């Protein structure tokens, strides 16, 4: 198995991955070759590839479709990114210290909010008669 490919943020595109974008119902294609995305012989970034035609304001995650080597279906890049983020989150679930208790702990410190909390606590303190 080759380790060549293009790392696009959280998503790794192995060598041989096909990229498809379109403008005005005309599709255009690029391929991951080695560690680069190649379009008509030129190395391009995903953003450059998707914005070669048109206004130049398109989000590559939402406009590029991917076909990974050995598959026949095209997947929207944003779907691949979301799946990867979810997989990464699952990996970290067991190692994160009590993530579900996160909102129940107040920060300590000496900033303005900490002083406000202390004043409120003193004000609400029950005083003996």
Could you describe the 3D structure shown?
- 30% of the residues lie in helices and 26% in strands.
- The chain is of the alpha+beta class.
- Strand 5 and strand 6 form a beta hairpin.
- The protein has four helices and eight strands; from the N terminus they run ββββββααββαα.
- The N and C termini lie far apart (79 Å).
Unreliable sequence segments: none
Helix content: 25-40%
Number of strands: 8
Largest sheet: 6 strands, antiparallel
* Estimated structural class: alpha+beta
| Average predicted local confidence, pLDDT | 83
C-alpha Rg (nearest Å): 25 Å
Strand content: 25-35%
Sequence-ordered SSE layout with sheet pairings:
Elements: E1 5-8, E2 11-14, E3 18-23, E4 26-33, E5 36-39, E6 42-44, H1 46-50, H2 60-63, E7 65-67, E8 75-76, H3 77-93, H4 112-124
Antiparallel strand pairs: 1-2, 3-4, 3-7, 4-5, 5-6, 7-8
Please give a quick description of this structure.
The chain has 129 residues and is α+β, with helices and mostly antiparallel strands. Helices cover 30% and strands 26% of the residues. Strands 6-5-4-3-7-8 form a six-stranded antiparallel sheet.
